[in-house]
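Render this sequence as a predicted structure.
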Amino acid sequence: MTKLICYIASFLDSFTSETNGLIPEIKKFRISALSLFSILLLIFSCEKDNEQYVNFDAGNDELTDLINDVCSLTALQLNKENTIQSIPQDPKNPITQAKIDLGKLLFHETGIALNPKQAEGMKTYSCASCHQAKAGFQSGIKQGIGEGGFGFGLLGEARVMATTYKDTTVDVQPIRSPTILNSAFQDVMLWNGQFGGTKTNQGTVAQWTVGTPKETNTLGFEGVETQAIAGLDVHRLIIDPKMIENNETYKALFDEAYPDIPIEERYTKLYGALAIAAYERIVVASEAPFQKWLQGEDGALTETEKQGAILFFGKGKCYTCHSGPALSGMEFHALGMNDLSSSDVHGSIDEVTKKGRGGFTKNPEDDYAFKTPTLYNLKDVHFLGHGGSFTSVKEIIIYKNNALIENNEVVLSNISSQFKPLGLTDIEINQLTVFVENALYDDNLERYVPESLPTGQCFPNADAQAKEDTGCN
């Protein structure tokens, strides 16, 4: 009753304010009506309402308190001042706008696909083949394909292995392609964390095998940079100095990004890769509703999203693994999830890949543990978990809520101590799903995609079917 009276009083006040000074009778009516309702308010103000009303400010207060108990609102912001300087960077590769501009193009450039195993793969793939914006900078398919892929679809979901390729010649991932989104907040890269020569990987030098991509760790860069350097060779991409020097746009971009590097070194793999890494670091989901809420936009989240967030930082304790601005983490956990299904895999999955972190460190205690991924922009991805064994965010939440492993190969003693039943109800699972899918979804990732490439090439793929799918000629 109290709330109803307040609503009516507010309506009368709003209605008569527009006619104030014009019709005296309306003013008198307003005063009389408000007097009447003031009396009613006094009568009923101490009487408990029978109906249940939602306090729309309580969600903000409770969520704020929960987050402040864990860390702080600012500690979860991906880009605090919307500046380059606020994004984590490798001290050996300071981020500059010139590097970002160059790296943005090279990341999508199919024109550097110059080392294919088969002639028809020439200039048909790029870094973005397995990490493209429409799929949250992951692959639109369960097993990402670089060279040897054919087609694209709408979100990369229609890319398949070309019939002219074999398992031994196609460039395909033995594990689901991790996103580059929010990667600046992780100091090692890949599911097993093998790339990165600092911090988390201190003490793993013995595993930086000479003659393998892991040797790149000896350069002393963090994970994003190390992966970019090693990845060019792994995925048969070449930064060709002659091509750069003969392309006016690329040459100018390299010159602006690296004015202090000698000409004979400037247009090379190392500096092209460092530019790609600088670009990857600024690819953050800073326009997601939760990020807007963290920066003071109280109305950025719906009530259901707030309730889901309250569960995330409360009863569900999701933050214990998914922490920091990216809601990721630098810990490795064995959750008993399946690897890629043999029916979906081109070739076979080796034991090193199956063992995750343990496959890299050679420490049995690390077996079957995988790096905690970011939770941003998962709504468009239909293959989740390191093996793509889940088709939706809700499926994974249910899996973690039940805490029953699906992969019998995983040693039970290695299962994470944090993998235990959460006791969430069906309603709470739905609320948590809405928070992850919608509140953590940045719908403007296309801002990180170039309009065109200096070479005039199509992207992210440039095979005949992909060109038709994307409307690129």
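Summary. Strands lie at 149-150, 160-161, 332-333, 370-371. Residues 84 and 97 are 8 Å apart (CA to CA).
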